[in-house]
Q: What sequence folds into this?
């Protein structure tokens, strides 16, 4: 895959994350450009899963946080396409390369502007 396409995936994730944080003030053209309700829901599920994965990693309740983090990690590592809201199905529907998104998420926070360091997993 070309580097430009990979940069596009990271940019799309960051843009979706920023859009998920912003509320209101959007025109009807903006809403149409973002896509259907199903697409928006898939973006929301993906962004929420990424944020949850990173927030649970630093959980203050170690046992429960680790268990939830492990479940999130298993969701990202799954190649299941049988369920509409599995990680791979969501990436397919959004036109994202699941393997690349997976690498971005598992190696470091894809929304961070700081360089990531290798984390022991």
A:
């Amino acid at each position: 895959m070309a580097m430009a396409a990979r940069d596009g995936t990271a940019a799309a994730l960051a843009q979706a994350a920023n859009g998920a944080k912003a509320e209101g003030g959007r025109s009807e053209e903006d809403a149409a450009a973002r896509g259907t309700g199903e697409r928006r829901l898939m973006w929301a599920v993906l962004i929420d899963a990424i944020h949850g994965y990173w927030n649970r990693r630093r959980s203050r309740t170690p046992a429960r946080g680790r268990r939830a983090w492990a479940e999130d990690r298993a969701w990202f590592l799954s190649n299941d396409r049988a369920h509409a809201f599995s990680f791979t199905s969501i990436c397919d529907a959004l036109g994202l390369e699941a393997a690349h998104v997976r690498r971005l998420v598992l190696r470091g926070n894809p929304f961070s502007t700081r360089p990531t360091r290798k984390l022991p997993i």
